[in-house]
Structure prediction request, 206 residues.
Amino acid sequence: MNDLLADWMRLMSGVVPPGTDPVVVATAGRDLLDRWSESHRRYHDVEHLADVLSTVDEVGAVAEVRLAAWYHDAVYDPRAPDNEERSARLVVDALSALKAGDRAGEVARLVRLTATHDPDPGDLNGVLLCDADLAVLARPADRYDRYAAAIREEYRHVPDDAFRAGRATVLRHLLDLPALYRTPELRERWEAAARANLRRELDALA
Prediction:
């Protein structure tokens, strides 16, 4: 958590106006980390946040993409249908309060893209964020299986039959995308493994 907060402070040093009270910036970062640490989260937690940040750093990203990584699941309620929209609204409020509202529109747009993971091919910022958000799909089978189990735990309020049907719909949507990863480097490294994991989980749900 301390490392993530330090990461936030470094990012925001280039985002907020000079002279902004660092206590205010740190408070905003702690609020985000508190959100990512909510007790009902099993996958959409600080580990996922760190994983997405690591990926966007590895490939290279502008500040707006890194901000979107911080905010993309800041609001996460498995019972709600509009988490991405509520997270995007949080972006606007939070960045405006930090006097960085000029970046809020692009960051909110990127956060909304994670609802479908289908950015336009020329949308470099959107492509990178969505690719990073889906990084877990290409992990080794045991890591992927832990992810799938964590998702089921987050939706433990949903009966088994309904969960299997809903999860299968999500998996088919992903498999129907022309490419899971649009960043050439990540597609070459991850596409085949991710599709194999998705098909394996989909078969297990049948």
The mean pLDDT is 96.
